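User: Fold this, then the next.

Assistant: Folding the first:
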Amino acid sequence: MADDDDETTPQAQATPRGCSSRLLVLALLLSAVGLGFAIYFMTLPQDLSDIHGYTPDTRSLLRRDIRMMLQNSLDRSYPVTITEGEINQWLLGVLKTKQGGLLADKVTLDGVWLRLEDGRAELVLERKVMGKPFTVSMYLQIQQTESESGTKTEINLHGGPFHKYLPFPKCGGRFGQLPVPQGFLLLVMPSFKNLAAAFPEELRLGFEEMTRIKIDKGRLTLDPRVPQRTVTGTP
């Protein structure tokens, strides 16, 4: 009997270790499969045909001067609404896309596009990497707070939470068709900073001088007028 117990004891002790090894292998396998799917969707460029102004048949013949529109709005104190198509057509006309850096001979920057949704905007860079299309995008949200000193405008570099029951992390943008957390934007932030540096005056007029900013589906509304405050009380 003693010999039988001695023989079965090592097997009983080896069983938990064997289960742990199988679970570890399964976890590594699932992680590898998940990473493979993520890389696959990253290599798939997002569909840009829904962006107004991207396809030739959605471009109007008249190209509006965005800077002049913003300056007139401020000078004459009236709100201005700019459509998604007008912004993209203006970008197409004034922005010269050129890829710099060590990969300039293998990577081309083909276009910059803006998609306007309710409450947020998505700025998309369209590239070709060794001849294959590739897109990367960043979400933008406008947050404005009013105080005694005036209206404070902040541009948040995210598009809100991935899910309403999962507030963190925020969805920063998309690499290809894959939504990525906000922290991943650090990998592509230099490209977006260079783009912002090309339009310092337009950004100042549109986001620093305007009092109220609203993003809706397909349009951006800017209003320089200070909101009127109604004071009520007992005389």
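Now the next one, as you asked:
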Amino acid sequence: MLRKVHYVLAISYLAVLLPLETAVCDNKGITTVSILADQASEDIQPGILHLEGHFSMQTRDWKLESTLATVYGKPDKPDKVYLEGSPARFSINRDNEGGMDVVEATAPEMLYQRSTNILRLSGGALLKLDEEMVRSKVIEYNIETERYRAGGADGVLIHVPVKD
């Protein structure tokens, strides 16, 4: 049976203090991060949460999914999140001048580091940026600058549709 854990920060001033990439503010000033998993357990060391089975962590703007996850730091504002899956998935909705872009990433292993805003994909990764697709053994994506670096033994495949 799935157990759902909600972390709701009802104190409106916290919505202002949290970084935009990890906070969702509705018109009531409430910030919510939803975490779903079959099992959750705290580590012996404080600030580490292990989640297993059908893991999902999301806000209105982004979502992480995997089979296994380890969250380091506070769940509403993690220092880093390590995912393992077949594959693990990440998606974020971004506003731009022309509308809304969706960035999607999949890989057997994924590490998100909040301090640097870097998403590291490994084990055979796929990154979709609007209409561009990047496939490689390892991909590092900077969420803030929207730039990536890819490489690995099998090289890099970049697919970009031709526009007239």
